[in-house]
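Notes from the 1:1 (GR / supervisor)

We went over the backlog. Supervisor wanted to see one worked example end to end before approving the batch request, so GR pasted a single chain during the call. The sequence is below; no edits were made to it. Supervisor asked that the structure be written out right there so they could see what the output format looks like.
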Amino acid sequence: MGSAWDTFVEGIIWRNNLRQHLPECFTDEVDIMYHLGKEEICALLHSWLLQLPNILPTDENVSNKLRADANEFFKNKKSNHYVLHAYNNAIAGAPCGSRAMALGYANRAIILIRLGRYREAFQDCQLALDGDYPDEKRLKVYFRQADCVENMNEPYKLGPIVEGISKISGTEGLSKGEQEKLRTLKAQYDVAEKSVAMDMAQTAPLPEGRYEASLEVVKTPTQGRHVVAREPIEADGIIATETAVSFVPVYEFNTRNTLASPDCQKCARVNVIPYVCCTCGRACYCSPQCRESHQSVHRFECYGYQKRLWYTIGIAHLGIRCLLDGFGTIRNAVLKAKTATACYKRLIEVTSGEENELGQYGRVFGLVTNFQKMDKDDVLRYALAGLMLSIYLIECTDFVRDHGLSQEGTIPAYELRMLFGALIMRHIGQLVCNGHAISELRASQQSGILCEDNFIPNVGLLHPYLRSSRVFTAIFPQISMFNHDCDPNIRNHFERSTLKVYATRSIAAGSEIVNCYGPNYKLMPVETRLMHLRQQYCFDCNCYRCRTNDDTYIKQFNTLRCPRCRHCCAVELDNENFKTSIGFDPVPKNPVICSQCSEKLYTRLYVRFSQMDLTAYEYNEKDFKRIVTEYDWCKDLLVDYNQTKAELLQEILSRYTKFAFSMTDELFSTLRGYALELATMRRHQFGFMSLEFLTGCFYLLDIWAVLYVVGGDEPVTLKPAELTALNEFRAALSMVGADTRALISEYMKAHVILDEETRDDLWISC
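Structure output shown during the call:
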């Protein structure tokens, strides 16, 4: 959770001696609420909510200034993306329904047309016309919107546009050119279908998660509930498909930027043109339709966005989102309840079996929390978060009134506070144990530099444009049934908010389907994995990798060779220390000494790193040659697939790929070899079906793109090892969403010109 909230909670716990109020053994979450939910505690929580700073856009002048700056950028022919970001900020900073907001949308439509985003430009024009846009300027917006319709080839949408232009022509008159354009638009509309497809934003019931393979949920005293295969499953076979019951954005706490990430909170599309909530200016959507459709939930979170609450409390946001998404299924039970205890027990009863009356929300409700195994302080923090969010719902939103819970004869206010607090606390505990991170390739915020006139990165700049990121935290109750193993037999593919699970190897009938909760044998030694699993998931892992205490795999990525005696040993280096030490006095805190000859390996490596200047902003051949020499020395000490060597390679490639145009043939060949070496190392450590391998291949694609340009537009012929990497890269593309795959495919079609046979085969796979 966020540091501001953590600090406040620690103060409450200490000043009110709450550790003594939490019983050693409690019945359920309602029992905890009754022990903690005293009036003085609730008053403190309510007071904390009210004192949170308000970031609601209230001043049109701020938005007008941002828009004026964007207009200047546009006139001075700044990058289209730079101008787009400026208009995004102007819209987000405009008060709801203001003229500044309408002007922002109208201006952003111009730059979106330049970028070829006609659908979003059409929507921006409509939002401007639906808002307080000046009457005397509406005609040009209508014609701008008509241009979008023509480019979208959807003439049935011209009806309101023709009507709007005709209405203006009756009062102001049109120029000869405008009259001709209007006649053309009328003719196009007349031949189009008269039945206009209306976007009715209705909330469809969430699809049930399903096991694609023949699986069975079983329960044993040692393993609890887990899933086994009834029939054999082949490697790469699909095992399960499930759409998240709830998901929320992953917020970056160490940033002053309170603007929304460009990802849709309704459908989970990433890297979208942002349509933010008109009131809070923070919650982001990919279209006005998604924004409207999500209002049934967002209207109860909007005040929290205005107070920056969701950025502050971390995963607890998903706890309240689960309740908001699922409340419709339990509303009747709450309306009939007289006490929190009775209602809670009823919900536990109806969700205790595999089949329940509450659908997908019921599946979430039936997941474990591990509160009885957790550290008491953690339980207190989650309980106080649940209680605070219950007070938020009741005191700061219209949730109670809108759901008919304030009527005479319904559950008393105090009991309702206890019930909501218990429900949210339960969901927080479930998410700590069962939450999934939805990872995608996030576009760089510096797209104005990397993509000048469209959404395709310039030659050689794919690698800084897309980075692997945690975008959402989500809950998938069906797939959460899979137990942990440090060597999982499944892999996860995300398509927006839908998760598809595939087998990584053949699975025999009767074998358990196992996921990895984070601590993977490829990433951490046994001791570290066991510590993380005990801390977060409250169990001692007994998988084969932990049971045999075998760290052979990870040791091969941490092997050092002494330059004096050639003795090899496995040592996990502090890679962050290396990066921060570049350019500084290379004095390691914990020097590594060769057990055979007492050579200070760590110190030698620090010295070499300090001589590698990777901060240059201009290309200098002499500097690059020195880096090549130093890397060759480090390469001898960092054996084979050492992960420090891989990170060093990535640092070199990140810094020098953009200078590839300026290199001699010899140095360019060296850089090309580095790109292939990095891809090979990522594949060896993580497998080719991994985001690490996928993003590692971006340097290869960029090198090939540059090679085509400097080679006089001759198609690039790949070396055998590069062709292998390309084929595996094509397979790995299935791990990211369709929008991301399309962007990468467009980059390759535009810049990576390969020989005809390879190219044709590639586009089929993409």
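Supervisor's comment: The longest strand covers residues 466-475.
Batch request approved.
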